[in-house]
Design a protein that fits this description.
The complex is a heterodimer of chains A (311) and B (430). Chain A is an alpha/beta fold and 311 residues long. Helix content of chain A is 33%, strand content 29%. Chain A is built from 10 helices and 14 strands. In chain A, helix 2 crosses helix 3 and helix 3 (106-120) packs across helix 4. Chain A is elongated. In chain B, helix 1 crosses helix 11 (276-306). Classes of the chains: A alpha/beta (311), B mainly alpha (430).
Amino acid sequence: MLQVDALKKSYGSLVAVNGISLRAGVGEIVGLLGPNGAGKTTTVSMIAGLVRPDSGSVRIEGRPLAGDTDPNKRRIGLVPQDLALFDELTAQANLQLFAALYDLDGPAARRAIGEALELVGLADRAQERVKNYSGGMKRRLNLAAALLHDPQILLLDEPTVGVDPQSRNAIFDNLEVLKQRGKTLVYTTHYMEEAERLCDRIVIIDHGDIVADDTLQGLYRRLPVTNLLAVELEQGQNGLRLDELRALPGVRSATLDAGTLRVGVQDLPTETPRLLQWLVDHGQLYRHVSSERADLETVFLNLTGRSLRDA
Amino acid sequence: MTIPFRALVRKDLQLFFVDRRALLMSFAIPIVIGSFFGYVLGGSGDPAGQSKISVLAVDRDRSAISSEIVKRLSAEQALDVKPSTPAEAREAVRKGTATVAVIIPPNFGQDAGNAFFGPRQKPEIGVLFDPSHAAERSMVAGMLAGDVMQAVSKEMFTGQTGREIVKDSLAQVEQSGGLPQEDKKPLEDLLRSVDRWNRQSDSADGAVSRGLTMPYTTREEAVTARQNVQYNGYAHAFSGMVVQFVLFLGIDVGIGLLQQRQRGLWKRFRAAPLSRGVLLGSRAVSAAILAFVVVQVNFLFARLVFGVRVEGSMLGFLGVSAAFAVMTAGLGMLVAALGKTPEATRGLSILVTLIVVMLGGAWIPMFLFPQWLQKLTVVAPTRWAMQGLEAMTWRGLGLEAALAPIAALLLFAALFGALAVARFRWEAEG
């Protein structure tokens, strides 16, 4: 459905996007995950035709997107990161305008508006001015505005920024409905939880480059460890030899920080008793033991050497 | 017109009419300020409502001549004359509560009479004036000169003081050995003739000489649209305020576009398969419609409340209004193209607009500007708007007088529009 090849965009000496390629099929949700400034929004802007790429191409069902008035743009619906709504107008008036941008008028527009409002649960608030809406309602209306012309591809640029968990879940439910209807969704976020919950495939972007493009399971498989055992020691690090610990079978990594030992293991049920016994045998008493599952944060850390939140 | 174009124009109109601030800035404030300036600038032409020059008269002589001078000054229509003392008069002028003070010194009548016929020391009338009212000072000085000449000459030829002075002067001339003979004889003849004329006047039927008078009178006529159509100060004031606040509306159009960009709306518009012509053209059309409506509503108010009429060509008035509205739309597009952030752009745009409005003569008439500045104002679109609106309202000129302003305004519109298209940042920020 959507085919992006070697997109590049620079602003002066700053390379915002450096040769990004990706595919998104029918009924698929592809997540673009990366820290702020990674190039996600610029990528989405180029796909939507808002920004002209320095090189590369965007194809929709094999046809390249070219020019401001390319009819192919009707196949794309954009949900901008900002709340792109007119606060002083009612939801109905906002949607009438956005429908008209795609030549929808009269009964066809009214039908499309009704369906979009129904989907996002705002049908009974259509005549209210948007300025009276909560942040979550505005986000849902922001989504509805992109659905009016029934696009096949939906580009969602961080569509849940600043909303409460309830509204976020409502938006996720909406997106899952759209996926079931066979829409292609490209979803940018820097929240790994969102990518984990929603996306069939995750494209990790950093400094304008793709560092990974895989399913969630595929990304986890790339990790040397998928589980961490955190052990809070009684006496800090007195006499503990990390090099001996790392040499144990099944142990992939070991770090000690502020009295807490973090040990990466591949098979948690097998390695945990053996590891705890080893500590006791070496005179290390412990207060507390917990395990942490590897997540996208770990994946990003592993791929870039930096934390997703700190990048 | 396409569905998107119509929808974008309708959206701008909707947003304008639900925005209280925009309505206030476009209708209420220009009406209030235009009404105030119109009243100050002479209102609707009723002389009773026009302000007079405040003059304090200090008569330290209290002679027949000085009393006559004060009486004549008080009779001048343009002056509001009140008696005062020297100290009070000086203080009042210093504070600005009086514009001019006239101080007639002691013994003025006698000294003026002596100086009238002979080579005597001329007495001085003190004129104190507020330096911020130099024009009024000149007016009062002119009126004073005429009134003094009439009062002194009348007294010299018919008054008791004058007769005594003539007799004294004749005796002095006859006894004077210092005067050259060729001067003495004509002077004696003149004084004897005056004395004889005075005595003949006594025996006549009581007709009183008015003394020396101005050898002409003036017939003043304000040249307006037609005879019997008075100048209406509200026409100028409303033209000025309409020009100023419609330009503010133009700035708001530009700022609005910048805000749409900032709020992501521009991305939504650009994501649709719309040409740049539709996106910017719809904004320009809605801005022009709004500007035209604002001009008409303000002048309608002036018509209903203050009697401001389009005394000239209605077609010309509508043409100037439309051309000014189009120019305003071009200005709005230019602001949007050159501006970076709404906040920074608003301050700078308002400053530039105020300067252009001032140069256009919207605040104070352009004839007060130095010559070089008056010539420079041809580059200010506001000058053409003012010229066109005034020509079609109180000046009552025909359609041909509107053509140059219309052409100039459209030229500015084309220039602004071309610059805006050239400099507009079409791409949404990534």
